[in-house]
Amino acid sequence: MTDEPKRAPSVGFISLGCPKALTDSELILTQLSAEGYQTSKTFQGADLVIVNTCGFIDDAVKESLDTIGEALAENGRVIVTGCLGAKSGDGGGNLVRELHPAVLAVTGPHATQEVMDAVHANLPKPHDPFIDLIPPAGIKLTPRHYAYLKISEGCNHRCTFCIIPSMRGDLVSRPIGDVLKEAKALFEGGVKELLVISQDTSAYGVDIKYRTGFWDGKPVRTRMLDLVAALGDIAEPYGAWVRLHYVYPYPSVDEVIPLMAQGRVLPYLDVPLQHSHPDVLRRMKRPASGEKNLERIARWREMCPELVIRSTFIAGFPGETEEEFEHLLDFVRVAGIDRAGCFAYSPVDGAAANELPGMLPEAEREARRSRFMEVAEAVSAERLRRRVGATMQVLVDSAPGLGRKGGVGRSYADAPEIDGVVRLLPPEKISKTMKVGEFTKARIVAAEGHDLVALPI
Ligand code: SF4
To answer: Is residue 112 helix, strand or coil?
Structure first.
């Protein structure tokens, strides 16, 4: 009698939601693989399915609930994790359990260990983990050449339109030594662009009083400036980019701008401003709402003329007057916001802003969003046009056939998935090739919509 080769237990993994949810998914997938489970992105044929959910807006809740229902129907053995898992239902119990009582387990976000416990209870660990097969950087869901680095979880603010703190709790900063170690492993694993994310990157270390940690045998403080400087140093030998997201306009950010001017990290800041008028910002209870953002941005641009600013805004917040809205339009023009996104305000279940007086009709909120986007797109297009004629470094995201017929990439001014791209024309030189995850120099020949068109050189 011969021994049948044992099939490794397989886990289907569906990842929904924002980049923060994606990093949770990566941690769970890395752990599953480290323990010898096979993973796939579908639920057909899997022994068990994990659905990482999003609970931020109503559409995302619906998508998550539908996916859970589908996984139950097609597979039957489902573990739910993520933001939706932390939400209460109408009956006061857990929303997911109320609607889908057949799920095996439910956890909130950032719960790798709890998810693994549920997996162990329902699909016992294989005896022979293939730990050595795990790349040092873990399993990435993003293309290999860029990766998200989550530096903290939760948020100490209580913006009135947001329910993230009630789902994810107060700020918990990851130890700086761990963060830098992960960054180094990612660069070692071939990552060429590191995207720093959190709910509030400028608040990094506040919860642990900027405790001193260690990296490479040297003391380093858990705070944004030290983190950014260290990341710039670690990225340098790999020729890799470091891009900062979710930075609030606190005075302390002024100290980070010189690092951008020196080219140690990308001169790009994702600053979710949401509005410009002080009264609206107060009603929103926004962090740094008392700051003079226009002056601050002007000073940043003086220190670093290359600086690109991306931001998101809300139009039609409860009580927003026409005058307050026009203040916002002027702000976008004068600040020269390079990339802007805008949501028409929409009430989110459980958010304090629902109680504010002066809710605007939906048609008016939508109309203001359109008016905002018209102004923001004109500002953005004008700023993009200034780049025509310049030579820029472009990170190649797609280049079929070694890029001989052209490809698609991004410059320092474009974060993946949210900004525009650089459309690369077929190179003139026959010997010139391009590969995904490599940099190429390109001369910008046109600006079209949110994108640039460039000739690789
Ligand atoms: S800063 Fe405001 S919007 Fe952002 S996560 Fe915290 S409470 Fe929500």
So the answer is: helix
